[in-house]
Amino acid sequence: MARISENWRKEGNQLYTSATQSGLSPVLRKERLNNAIMKYNKALQTAETRNDRSSAYKNIGMASWRLAQVIQLQNEGPKLVEFHLIEALKHLSNALEEAGSSRGIDWSTQSNQYLHECLQGVIDDTAEMGLCRERVDTLRRFLGVISRDLPVRVAGLLEMTTVTFHLGVTALENGDITECLNYMAECYQPIEETKRVADDEIMKEVDVLEKDVFMQKCVAESIKARKTADDLLENILMEQEELSYDMIWEVIDWYKQAILLSREHEVEMEAIALSRLGSVYDKVLKIKLMAKKYFNRCMSLVMALHPKSFHSEDWYVECTSALQRYQKEQVEREEDVWQKKREKYLEKLSEDLKKLKESANGLPESYLRFIYKTFPPKGENKKLDEEALDSGEHDSIKKVLLKAIQHYHPDRQKEHGEQWVVLCEEITKYLTAKYETFK
To answer: Is the residue at 302 inside a domain?
Structure first.
């Protein structure tokens, strides 16, 4: 029977060789290749050894590949081309599996090369489809007939996974979170299949792709969690008569999940979730300490994204408005506290302030001499320039007044006690008024 199988192959080889000759019409070329495939199938049916079977598989694969090329050139329809290409990939794959190590390295290397070239041709042809679902499905049909143990599949798997990934990215850009997550989930199986047979160099590419898929999945899940929180919060505030604190805490949990999922993956998404969370604490729970914490973290991320601008984004406006309000409230509180303290010190300093006011009614020179003698500025090298005062020159007196304002400026006196600060405020008030008259 082995001899019969070999004879069928020889007859097929004659037809295959004649079909590949130049100058032959497409009709005759197709006819001879179809007849060659028939002969090779009979060789396969009558084969008894692994070598005969592997040879028959290889011959069927090569003839199917050439037949697909002829049909493609004649534009006879993509379905027919796909059928013969699938036949080619399937039988070339079967040839390598059947042969194992029995055919030697040269035979295996050549067969692997044929399979690689055929698959690469498929990848290149499907690229014309562009970024679409159909291309992923087409690649999957072709890859499905190649043994999972053959490294040659790697190129197709990586291409299919990359297309799937970019479809997911596009879906997210279009606002379809569910479709994005479905595409990302679809990436994991071919990635794992690639890992089984990839070499070290290919594994570097696989690792990058896997990280990209994971990052995009986290970003999509973060957006989904944030939108879930947004919808739930709107329902609580707009449709429920009584505020449900249990549901508010659920909203907070969703925002926190959105923050965690986007962290180190998508800074802007994390900033949005932080602002939303800050808003819940600010407007709903009225816990300003927590609100300020999340708003500040949001602003830190915004600064990290400079020079990108978010001034038109509602979440940014919400964050900055709240922080400005907190700052204003803090200043007002501090001013109220200081004013109460100041009134106490003004009472204690009433006699000194009376003298100060009386002196301020006189000439600038006499006022300057009075304060430097009665309330000398604290610190070294803060002396009155008597020579400049004695000159009586307008500009010289003006400079002395400016220097005095610096010596007594309240912002520079805090280390000397609050009472001294209050006194310096009053001293500076009169100094400034006199300086203004010199302008």
So the answer is: yes
